[in-house]
From TrEMBL:
This is GTP pyrophosphokinase rsh. Residues 627-701 form the ACT domain. It comes from Roseivivax sediminis. In eubacteria ppGpp (guanosine 3'-diphosphate 5'-diphosphate) is a mediator of the stringent response that coordinates a variety of cellular activities in response to changes in nutritional abundance. The lineage of its organism: Bacteria, Pseudomonadati, Pseudomonadota, Alphaproteobacteria, Rhodobacterales. The keyword Hydrolase applies. It is an enzyme of class 2 (transferase). Keywords: Hydrolase. GO terms for biological process: guanosine tetraphosphate metabolic process; nucleobase-containing small molecule interconversion; response to starvation. The keyword Membrane does not apply.
Length: 712
């Protein structure tokens, strides 16, 4: 275990003016609090917080962060309290320790809803003080380094959580070294055989080709010296997980991969970066499409570097990153560079990003009122994506995730421009809205007055900001329609309980469900974000549905105007109990389809014709015809037994059509009148259990979709 003197020496290496007494006091306090506690490995528990503090010294962080690392488990795992830490070590440290404690209690890999809520808390903690996340990431790194002491199932859980959340977060913060180590440690647990295989292949490759890294490094140094450029060159093989991921993405074996080596050139000045690039390109051939200039277009976390991939005489590709020493410091520590110390002074690195500005840029599009799954999608889109840089017609730079479209570009400029988008020009050429943008392209958004976001845009947009704005706009546009439908659903559901959906009752239900008002409740009810059953149960949790009479066929479907009639689509023959949607036919009523009907593909680009519908709750009469496709044995009395079987389940056979007759079997289409989906399931289950029934399927034929129109 690292002693107090050794830890203080590590801090003194970069901050001779550190508060030695504060660190020594925190060391002694934490050691006393954790006395008697052990880790899974049997080691004293205190070895863990000391190791976390040592990891943070590698990032040259301030005294408050080092002290927080030593104390980060005291509130949670010992008798220590927030008040005691604040009194002993000050409010700043107490706030940081409390923040880490709250993060430790977040179960980030739980269910989608819980995960989204915890991500919100994560971003709130980050926005208060990013050092909380730096301590938590270092805490996770040490836990992953010592994960072998955990139970196998716990190892898998922690490794998956690390791969899904902590490694991408470290990468998004610019701490690439930490991201790579976290990924590799998690990879060791999740894919031990895959990792071992890649390492074995590396060893074999070295035996065959010799020390490639040393040879290329020497060649690069020679070329830079010839060009009179003062620079350091470092080379390394890429991490096993990075290679494995590339193998999966490109669907190729290890032997076919080329750029498995990476090199860094650290220069004295920005001018030397471009001079070094020229020297390298003169000696080795550049690979087209693999050049990125993050010096002139830095990433939002402050990362600056020139990336290029070159090909040698043997055809092997190598990736080269070129940057200055100051750029390299930010590239290694990312957003953490803001707190770094050197020689007792806060390091003045012009490329370090203000953490408050960074976290604002990351979370500004996460609307607190968004659904959990939408919020989670937006977070992951922003955390897991690389960036492209495009230009407005005026030459301003717009940063977007890789794979972004002109629609994302429009929303990135302003929500109003994105919403009014009708087309786009890329480098002066008109392109479809789903075009994927590339680095350096100039994009012009064409707008039109009166244009509003379309449902299909959700499939085109890739950024969280654009998707959130489109959903909000669609929700607002359909709000009145959803409120109207929600009111009908509420009326029907309350009536099923023998109650009335009065304005006061709806307001109370909204209050219980933590919604701002009854209109929001009705809108969510109408858009299927909330079920009518949940609304009723909020007010009457112990009340059972009362027995209701038969539903009137003229009111069987909720969501239509009083004057509107409806026809069940013959292609899918929807039944009460199934999710449905209406397709309006100009002047000829509404055709009701099952929500998964294949025939709906023909009208997917006509959202204005779609009507949200629901079946009324209650007992429906057995008048809804469904066609069954049956194959039965050709024996005396078989058809009679089947008809009896159906009749015993209160279903009426309204038509029978023999499709094929063979010596040993018949295939026939049978029309049966049913009450609802449950009634159908009862009949099909009975037929399926009959020995003489070879197959029974519900017929669904998209080709019959036109019959409803012809019949009107």
């Amino acid at each position: 275990m690292i002693s107090a003197d050794d830890l203080i020496a590590l801090v003194h290496n970069y901050n001779p003016r550190s508060n030695t007494q504060l660190i020594r006091s925190a060391y002694a306090y934490a050691e006393r609090m954790h006395s008697g506690q052990t880790r899974q490995s049997g080691e004293p528990y205190f070895t863990h917080p000391v190791a976390v503090a040592a990891i943070l010294t590698e990032q040259q962080l301030d005294d408050a962060t080092i002290v927080t690392a030593l104390l980060h488990d005291t509130i949670e795992d010992t008798k220590s309290t927030y008040q005691e830490i604040a009194a002993t070590f000050g409010d700043e440290v107490a706030h940081l320790v409390d923040g880490v404690t709250k993060l430790t209690n977040l179960q980030l890999s739980s269910s989608e809803t819980k995960q989204a809520e915890n991500f919100r808390k994560l971003f709130i903690a980050m926005s208060k003080d990013l050092r909380v996340i730096l301590v938590k990431l270092s805490d996770r790194l040490h836990n992953m380094r010592t994960i072998r002491a955990m139970r196998p199932e716990k190892q898998v859980q922690k490794a998956r959580e690390t791969m899904d959340i902590y490694a991408p977060l470290a990468g998004r913060m610019g701490m690439q070294w930490m991201r790579e180590e976290l990924e590799d440690l998690a990879f060791r647990v999740l894919q031990p055989e895959g990792r071992a295989s890649i390492i074995r292949r590396f060893i074999n490759l070295q035996k065959e080709t010799g020390d490639v890294i040393h040879r290329i490094t020497s060649d690069m140094r020679h070329e830079l010296e010839k060009a009179d450029i003062d620079a350091e060159v470092f080379g390394r093989a890429k991490k096993p997980y990075s290679i494995w991921r590339k193998m999966q993405e490109k669907e190729m074996g290890f032997s076919r991969l080329s750029d498995i080596y990476g090199f860094r050139v650290i220069t004295r000045s920005e001018e030397d970066c471009y001079a070094a690039l020229g020297a390298i390109h003169q000696r080795w051939r550049a690979v087209p499409g693999r050049f990125k200039d993050y010096i002139s277009q830095p990433k939002s976390n402050g990362y600056r570097s020139i990336h290029t991939t070159v090909s040698g005489r043997d055809g092997k590709r190598v990736e080269v990153q070129i940057r200055t020493r100051q750029m390299h410091e930010v590239a290694e520590t990312g957003v953490a560079a803001h707190w770094a110390y050197r020689d007792g002074q806060r390091a003045e690195n012009p490329f370090a990003v203000d953490p408050a500005r960074w976290i604002t840029s990351l979370s500004e599009q996460f609307d607190a009122e968004e659904d959990h799954d939408e919020f989670l999608e937006a977070v992951k889109l922003e955390m897991y994506s690389d960036q492209v840089f495009c230009f407005t017609p005026k030459g301003e730079v717009v940063k977007l995730p890789k794979g972004a479209t002109p629609l994302d570009f429009g929303y990135a400029i302003h929500t109003r421009i994105g919403a009014a988008c009708v087309g786009a020009k890329v480098d002066g050429i008109r392109v479809p809205l789903w075009t994927r943008l590339k680095n350096g392209q100039s994009v012009e958004i064409i707008t039109a007055e009166g244009q509003t976001p379309q449902t299909s845009w959700l499939e085109i947009a890739t950024t969280g900001k654009a998707k959130t704005a489109i959903r909000r706009s669609l929700r607002e546009a359909g709000r009145e329609r959803y409120i109207k439908l929600g009111r009908e659903l509420a009326r029907s559901a309350f009536a099923g309980m023998g109650k009335t959906a009065t304005p006061k009752a709806l307001e109370k239900a909204a209050e219980i469900l933590r919604l701002p008002d009854s209109e929001t409740l009705l809108a969510r009810l109408g858009s299927a974000e909330l079920s009518a059953r949940d609304v009723v149960r909020a007010l009457y949790p112990d009340l059972r549905p009362k027995e209701t009479g038969t539903v009137d066929q003229s009111h069987a479907v909720i969501g239509l105007d009083r004057a509107q009639g409806f026809t069940r689509a013959p292609c899918c023959q929807p039944l009460p109990g199934e999710r449905i949607v209406g397709i309006a036919r100009r002047g000829r009523g509404v055709i009701v389809h099952a929500i998964d009907c294949a025939a709906l593909a023909e009208v997917e680009n006509e959202p204005a014709r779609w009507i949200d519908l629901h079946w009324a709750s209650g007992n429906h009469p057995p008048v809804y015809t469904v066609t069954l496709d049956l194959t039965i044995g050709n024996d005396a009395g078989v058809l009679g037994r089947i008809c009896t079987l159906i009749g015993e389940r209160s279903a009426n056979i309204s038509d029978l059509n023999f499709m094929d007759r063979k010596p040993d079997f018949y295939r026939l289409l049978m029309d049966i009148d049913l009450r609802d989906a449950e009634h159908l399931h009862m009949v099909v289950s009975a037929l399926d259990a009959e020995d003489d029934v070879a197959t029974v399927e519900r017929r669904r034929d998209p080709g019959l979709a036109g019959q409803a129109e012809a019949a009107e």
